[in-house]
Structures are given as C-alpha cells and as structure tokens.
Amino acid sequence: MSFQQYNLRHFLPSKNQLAALGLGILLTACGDIPTDPDGTLKQILNSQSFDVGIVSGSNPKETAIIIDRLERITGATARLRRDETSRLIDQLENGEIDLIIGSFPKSSPLQKTVTFSAAIGNRKVPSDQPATRAGMPHGENRWIMLVEKAVRHHD
C-alpha cells in the first residue's frame, strides 16, 4: 500500500474531540473559580469572624440588614468599626477590614480601589446616585460574590 492510499482523516482527531480536549484543558487550568488571591472568604470561615467598616452617617437599618445576612450565610460574627470613608478605604486596602458599608454611587471614583455591590435589595438606582452598598477588596471574587448575594437578597 502506498502512502497516498492512506486516508489521514482516520488518524486525526475530529472537531468535537478537539473541542472536548480544549474544554478539558481550560477547566483544568481554571481550577477553583472564582478565586480569592488573599484568601478573604477562607479566612472568614476559619476564624468565624469578619471585620466591617461602617461609614459614619450610614443608614443603620440597611447596614444591619447586610450584616445580618452575611452573618447568616457565613456563620461568622461581624466585628464593627465606624469611621470616615477615607480611613475605612485605607483599612480595606491594607487588609485590616473585610468590607465597608456606606452610601456610595456605584460609579464612585473610589471604584478604582474598591469593588462596590449593587444597591441593597437590588434596587434600581442610577449608578451616579448614592445608595447603601458594600465595598470589597478588588479581586477577592468568592467574597465579592457572597457579599453581592447578601446585598441583592429580597426579604
């Protein structure tokens, strides 16, 4: 049998096989998504506590709702501190607190350093209007997703 008589298509993987292989490689490479590079959620679950910075003048009822939901979801106890926004942002960036709660527009200039949640109860508030929101450290995606769930929940 000559080389020309071999049909190379029998030896090459099909498009479906290549797609399945690519998906398998992609999923293996992704590992645990979403991730928390600094381990925020893992640390909260292990220590059974999390630190919350409450911006002075925040709506006490809405703040309490978010904290209560997070305590129920995580089984952890919130340790609270009140301060001005700039000090709390610094503490969040330095890992001294795990989130801040206050009245912020979603399109705040602070979004360069903080990931802001939706408005509490997932209310439709224009992004340039202040509403009670939680702010989390950028990149801590597991923690961010959990906080988003707590903030968006309707009672």
Task: Give a verbal description of the structure.
- The chain has helices at residues 15-30, 40-47, 60-74, 85-93, 141-152, and strands at residues 49-55, 77-83, 99-104, 114-116, 131-137.
- It has 155 residues and is α/β, with parallel strands linked by helices.
- The protein has a single domain, classed as D-Maltodextrin-Binding Protein, domain 2 (3-Layer(aba) Sandwich), CATH 3.40.190.10.
- A five-stranded mixed sheet has the order 2-1-3-5-4, sandwiched between helices.
- α3 packs across α5.
- The longest helix is centred in the N-terminal third of the chain and has 16 residues, at 15-30.
- The termini are far apart.
- 30% of the residues are buried.
- The mean pLDDT is 83.
What's the layout of helices and strands?
Layout: H1 15-30, H2 40-47, E1 49-55, H3 60-74, E2 77-83, H4 85-93, E3 99-104, E4 114-116, E5 131-137, H5 141-152
Parallel strand pairs: 1-2, 1-3
Antiparallel strand pairs: 3-5, 4-5
Helix pairs in contact: 3-5
Using brief descriptors, characterize the structure shown.
155 residues, alpha/beta, D-Maltodextrin-Binding Protein, domain 2, five-stranded mixed beta sheet, 5 strands
Helix content: 25-40%
Label the overall shape: globular
Measured distance between first and last alpha carbons: 75 Å
**CATH architecture classification:** 3-Layer(aba) Sandwich
- Kindly report the oligomeric state of this protein: single chain
Topology as a string of helices (H) and strands (E): HHEHEHEEEH
Q: Roughly what is the average pLDDT, rounded to an integer?
A: 83
Over the alpha carbons, how many angstroms does the gyration radius reach? 23 Å
- Taken together, the total number of domains comes to 1
Poorly predicted runs: none
CATH topology: D-Maltodextrin-Binding Protein, domain 2
How do the strands of the widest beta sheet line up side by side?
A: 2-1-3-5-4
Which class of secondary structure composition applies to the elements? Answer: alpha/beta
CATH superfamily: Periplasmic binding protein-like II
- The number of distinct β-strands equals 5
Text of the CATH class: Alpha Beta
Q: Major beta sheet, specifics?
A: 5 strands, mixed
Beta-strand percentage?
A: 15-25%
